[in-house]
Amino acid sequence: MEQEKSKKSIPFIKIIIGVALLGFAVVVVSGNKMWYSEDRPIEILSDMDNQFKAKPQVGSTFFADRAASRPVIEITVPRDGISYPLEKPDFERADSVIGQNPLQASDFVLARGQNRFEALCAPCHNADGKGNGKVVEKGFQNPPSLLDEHAVGLSDAHIFHIISAGQNIMPGYADKLNMNDRWTVVHYIRSMQAKR
Asked: Cβ distance 166 to 176 under 8 Å?
């Protein structure tokens, strides 16, 4: 008699435990956890979360010159084997050192130039090239319009140099765009200027 009683109570206990576990699983999976802690989590290996790293445009106390970014070593060559030959203020030498655009304008070249322009240039210059991009809404200075007479009068080499080395507060993009992509952007800028 006692044995029969214990056999009948076992399924009832299993059902209660199963429902409790199911309810717990639903609460956890749905993200509605019912417990909160103000304590820091236990970290087994915290070196990836709390590591020293150089952040863009932030000074550093590690180097004597207080700059986080290090200058390029003069006697080295980048992985692609091409180093940019001019410094930022060398606009006068751009035509003689850089020369003519080696790419012919084509649908592919213009499409690639538009793609690179919209990805990297449009945040400042806007998709129309007039210099009223999203960064201006955030309080940055208006960049110059790429459609005004001064920009139209610049040579392809001069525009290529500005894209490569930067100008005023604009950074250089030689490390982000390979040489052909920079020339495609020049072609795309010229196509925008032709439509103005």
From this structure: no
Question: How does DSSP classify residue 58?
Answer: -
Angle at 86 between CA 83 and CA 88, to 5 degrees: 120
Phi, psi (deg, nearest 5) at residue 118:
-65, -30
* Of 148, 143, 149, 140, the residue nearest 162 (C-alpha): 143
Strand partners, 170: 167
- pLDDT (tens digit, 9 = 90+) per residue, 125-159? 999 999 888 988 888 888 999 999 999 999 999 99
What lies within 8 Å, CB to CB, of 103 at 6+ separation is 109, 180, 183, 184, 187
Q: Which helix (H) or strand (E) element contains residue 5?
A: helix 2-29
In angstroms, how far apart are the furthest CA atoms of the chain?
107
Contacts of 84 (CB under 8 A, 6+ apart): 164, 165, 172, 174
Assess contact for 161 and 92: CB atoms under 8 A.
Answer: no
Helix/strand/coil for 167: strand
Whether the Cβ atoms of residue 195 and residue 128 lie closer than 8 Å to each other: no
**Selection from 158, 155, 178 nearest residue 167 by Cα:** 158
Q: Token pair of 150, please?
A: 């001064």
What's the pLDDT at 15?
87
Residues with Cβ < 8 Å from 106, sequence gap 6 or more? none
Taken in order of first residue, the domains within the chain and their CATH numbers are: 94-194 (1.10.760.10)
